[in-house]
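Researcher: Structure prediction, please.
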Amino acid sequence: MCSHYQGVKNRAQFERHFGVTPALGEHSLDVWPGYPAPFVRSHPHADTGDDAVPALEAPIGAFGLLPHWAKDRSASRHTYNARTETVAQKPSFRDAWARAQHCIIPAEAIFEPDWRSGRAVSTRIGLASGEPLGIAGLWSAWRGPEGEVLSFTMLTVNAVAHPLMREFHKPADEKRMVVVLPQAFYTEWLNATASQSMDLIQSCPLPDLVVTGDIAPKASRTNRSGIGSQSTLF
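Model: Predicted structure follows.
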C-alpha cells in the first residue's frame, strides 16, 4: 500500500514523459492523503471531434478518491489505495471503476516502510531507469461547498511475487504494491473500458524497482486537506 509519494518536480520531464502539460496551480510535491497533486487522464471532451481539444489533461486533484456520496473531504484519508481484488465491489470505488475513470498518477518515487530491522524505516523506491513512475489509478469528481473537487486513488495488487516489494510492510501483513504501468501501456490504460481494465492490469510486467534512499523527507501532516510542506506552482 502507498500513502506517501513524491511528485515529479521538473515540469519539462513531466511533459516529456507523460505527453501533457500539468495544470497551473499550487500543489504538493511531498504527497500524503488529502494533499493536492496532478494526475493524468483523458480529456473529458476528447471524443467530440474538436481538434482544439487535447487528448490528455493533467488537472490537480486530492490524493484519496472522494465518492459522490462523501460528506466531506476527510474521506480521502481512507481511500488513497484501491485493492484490485475488490475495487469493483467497494462502495468508495465501484462507480469510478464501472465508468472506467482511469488515470495515471505521476511520481518520482514512492515511500514504503521497511520492517526488516524490527522497526519501520521509510524507504524511497523508484524505477531503476530513473524515469518517473506512472501509477494506475481511478479518478472521481465530488461536489462540495466550494464547488467541484477532483480526486484520485492508486490501484494496488499483491506483491508476493515482486523481488523487492515483497520485503516491505510488517512481517505478518499482506505484501501489497501499487500498479506501475510501463510507459507503453499509458494510452491503453487511459482508453480501456471497464471490462478491459482487469486484464490490462494483470498483463503488466513487474516493474524494475530499486531502493533510491531511506528516511522519507519530514513533512507536516497536520493539514490533510491542504498543501503539504513542499509545494510548488507550475
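Model: The longest strand covers residues 133-144.
Researcher: Thanks, that helps.
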